[in-house]
Amino acid sequence: MGKFSRKLQKLHDTAPKVDTAVLVTIIRQGETERETEEHLDELAFLTETLGAKTVYRFTQKMEKPDIRTFIGSGKLEEIQSYVEHFEVDMVIFDDDLSPSQMRNLENELKVKIYDRSLLILDIFLNRAQTAQAKTQVELARFQYLLPRLTRMWTHLERQRGGTSTRGGSGEKEIETDKRDIRNKITLLKSKLRDIEKQGITQRKGRKGIVRVALVGYTNVGKSTLMNLITKTDILAENKLFATVDSTVRKVVLDNIPFLLSDTVGFIRKLPTHLIESFKSTLDEIREADLLVHVVDISHPNFEDHINVVTETLREINAGDKPILLVFNKIDLVETMPDEEGIMNMSELELEEANYLDFPSLSDAYEKKTGIKPVFMAAASGLHVEEFRESLVTEVKKAHRKIYPHYLENEIVDWEMKETDNSSQ
Q: What's the gap between Cα 156 and its chain centre?
């Protein structure tokens, strides 16, 4: 062996190790194969957002989850063999696990176990920027993990989502960590109360001005739209939960000032207690005069996404707000051809085509919301003016509710001054 070859042998790979993961879900009665794949695609996207690589997917048809290990014993053995053979770092479930299920699964599989909520919480933790968001997420994560604490989740102060450790400490260390976590929860609650007092003071200063909140499923283009309206440079990525912190900007359109906030995106199976960890985002939505619901119309499940957001708004007591529906990313979909175009298509082409009928879609959702939807592409600037006009129209409506008689008040004041002057 030459000198050069011996030198190469001493070199080590300095690139950070990417954790590997397998995904697990159960197929319930009535759920189609396509729905299962779509749900796993989303879980894989979440896994990628955390920084891990999905290497395999496991599914099992079950009426209800196994009370002990969520999945059946045969499927558990299959996953165990795969994890051991390919040295997989973590197993991620598309549902929430009970504390006992998480402990049992970790004891069987000997790797870190994530359920859907814990996965999302770790993504939130990595993406939070402000002191309030970081405190909220840490508190929610500790509260969620405390009853589920196992050997793989000890030394939480060093865990920042995605790092896995094989093996772990004993039961005594787990009890010590639990005591530490309880102390941290107490401190975080105290810190959060102080931060929220500041937030209440800030929101009091916003009274008397129209407030608009961007809402929608995660990764639909809210931040891109925010940048377009406010001419700012808020982070906009093709990743789930690119925006975690609530961002508020003052905007003036047609001489009407209003506050526009970009909020954290919603997602399927996002438990309310996780959303509640973002009280600042909830307050922006609850106290808004108008919600701009952004929808990625290019997504095959966009109607399901609309339903998820609508239901979530209802759960947080914001379902009665006026909603301007914005169908974004229209440049990525095919629209319904005219009659002549349809006549020239074969039956097979018509059957396989996935056209969207914008006029019919507009009529259907206008009946639901009472406001005519907007179709646009924020990234390319397509139909931006139509969106601007619709936004101004709805902001003016909200402005008139806050100041219904502001012109009349000016006239009354002027008439009173004239009367006072004439009597002198």
A: 24
CA angle 418, 419, 424 (to 5 degrees): 100
- Phi, psi (rounded to 5 degrees) for 219: 65, 40
pLDDT tens figures, 290-347: 999 999 999 988 999 999 999 989 988 899 999 999 999 999 887 666 666 667 766 6
pLDDT digits (tens, 9 = 90+) for 381-397: 999 999 999 999 999 99
Rounded Cα gap, residues 161 and 176, in angstroms: 21
The strand pairing partners of 56, in sequence order, are 22
| Strand, coil or helix: 250 | strand
Residue 358 near residue 334 (C-beta atoms within 8 A): no
- Cα→Cα distances 98→85, 114, 406, Å: 27, 11, 56
Q: Contact at 8 Å (CB) between 246 and 20?
A: no
Cα separation, 144 vs 268, in Å, equals 19
- Across the chain, what does the average pLDDT equal? 81
Structure tokens at 116: 């859907």
DSSP code, position 148? G
The vertex-341 CA angle with 335 and 347, nearest 5°, equals 95
For residues 298 and 329, is the Cβ–Cβ distance under 8 A? yes
Strands 210-216 and 112-114: unpaired
Return the axis-axis angle of helices 384-402 and 222-230, rounded to nearest 10°.
80
Distance CA 17, CA 40 (A): 24
Model pLDDT for residues 126-152, shown as the tens digit of each residue: 877 778 778 888 888 888 888 888 777
Cα 124 to Cα 240: distance, rounded to the nearest angstrom: 10
Which of 294, 277, 153 is closest to 216 using CA atoms? 294
Q: Concatenate the DSSP letters of all residues of 59-89 into one string.
A: EEE-SS-BTTTBS-HHHHHHHHHHHHHHT--
What does the alpha-carbon distance between residue 117 and residue 225 come to, in Å, rounded to a whole number? 28
| pLDDT of 415 | 44
Average pLDDT value for residue range 90-100: 95
Give the number of other CB atoms < 10 A from CB of residue 97. Answer: 22
Over its C-alpha atoms, the chain yields an Rg (Å, rounded) of 26
Q: How many CB atoms lie within 10 A of CB 42?
A: 19
pTM: 0.77
- In the DSSP assignment, the letter for residue 223 is H
C-alpha count within 13 angstroms, C-beta hemisphere, residue 359: 3
CA distance 398 to 258: 10
